[in-house]
Amino acid sequence: MTGQTTLDQLQPGVKARVISLANTGTERRRFMDLGILPGARIEVELHNPLGDPTAYRTRGAVIALRREQANQIAITMEEETERQ
Amino acid sequence: MYNGAQLTRLGINMTDWDFVVALAGNPNTGKSTVFNALTGLRQHTGNWPGKTVVRAEGGFLYGDKRYKLVDLPGTYSLLSTSADEEVARDFILFGQPSVTIVVVDATRLERNLNLALQVLEITDRVVIALNLMDEAKRHGLRVDERRLARDLGVPVVPMAARQGEGVQDLLKAVAEVASGAAVTRPHRVRQRDPQVEQAINQIAGQVERAFPGLPNARWVALRLLDGDESIEQAVREGTLGQLVQQKSPEPLPAIRLELEAVS
Q1: Which CATH architecture has domain A6-71?
Q2: Which sign, positive or negative, has the C-alpha torsion B50, B51, B56, B59?
Q3: Are A39 and A18 in contact (CB under 8 A)?
Q4: CA distances for B111 relative to A20, A34, B152, B173, angstroms
């Protein structure tokens, strides 16, 4: 199953790929330095029961993003992995 | 076989040196372990952010040359603006080390190469220390270090610094790059857009006129185009020139030769 959405919509257990970043300025630079670039694989590592922030895993590291940051990142869903 | 015959650790007992070596790398790559292995110092190693906030310095003797080693804070980038990244960036850019060692984590190569490529943009004199090879092996990862060296255009030394593995090879590579015996051809990301290229040339020219002798004027120009506020401020307030004066108090060798010829 594939479909284009934003990172904040990504459900745990689903793998996705980054398409583009709408973030600007130093935040954009920071995200790119942390490995969130077009083509990068990303998935939810830890869902926050309070909803915010969510921890994502990309390129071997875990990065926590707030919803208003994650919704600037366009992704395409790749495949469903087994649910834990 | 570990052969430490040629290495003499000098700790902090250094008055003068032949070469300055910068030690850069992402956080948690074993950078401080490499530093300690070379200098005999016990720079704290441990897993928390911002551990090496200011730069630590130590020395070693290898062959008949004295090296000053500067341990920079662990950073993912030279382009974002945290205090750590500014310390590392300013030193590599304007301190003009003879060699910059970039310590990379063999188990997280993709992430670590971001910083390595950024350093290669600034300087030719780079050695990649491919650290944590023992962990990579444990995870079943195989890294083709020869291919990596070919692609990056600089020496790549596989290491397990905690076990002292690869230290001799690292010293050899550093000595060869420092003396110019090894010629590097660093991989550079090309600016494909001629308009960007033209803008860089134009601004770099102005930067060079404003700060004579400034290394890496093209890099500064690119950062200005990118809207880097800290670089903008350094240009506006003239502190960019001070950085150069502070960190390279001696004239460049070529200039010194000229002066001698005249007198």
Answers
A1: Roll (2.30)
A2: negative
A3: yes
A4: 18, 7, 15, 24
> What's the distance, CA A37 to chain centroid?
10
Domain boundaries, chain B: 7-179, 194-262
Contacts B76 to A, Cβ<8 Å: 33-34
Q: Of B91 and B167, which is predicted with more confidence?
A: B167
Residue B77 touches chain A, beta carbons under 8 Å: yes
- DSSP-derived 3-state class of residue B169: helix
- Nearest CB among B77, B79, B108 relative to A59 is that of B108
ipTM of the complex: 0.72
B112 touches chain A (CB under 8 A): no
Q: What pLDDT is attached to residue B2?
A: 45
Tens-digit pLDDT profile for residues B5-34: 478 877 766 678 899 999 999 988 999 899
The minimum CA-CA distance between A33 and chain B, rounded to whole Å, is 6
Would you kindly state where each structural domain of chain A is located, as residue ranges? 6-71
pTM: 0.80
Class of domain B7-179: alpha beta
DSSP one-letter code for B257: H
- Is the pLDDT at B55 greater than 70, yes or no? no
B81-132 tens-digit pLDDT: 677 788 888 888 888 899 999 999 999 998 899 999 999 988 999 999 999 9
Q: Pick from B80, B107, B108: which is nearest to A30 by CB? A: B80
- Is the Cβ–Cβ distance between B30 and B103 less than 8 Å? yes
Q: Which residues of A touch B79 (CB under 8 A)?
A: 29, 33
Does residue A33 carry a pLDDT above 90? no
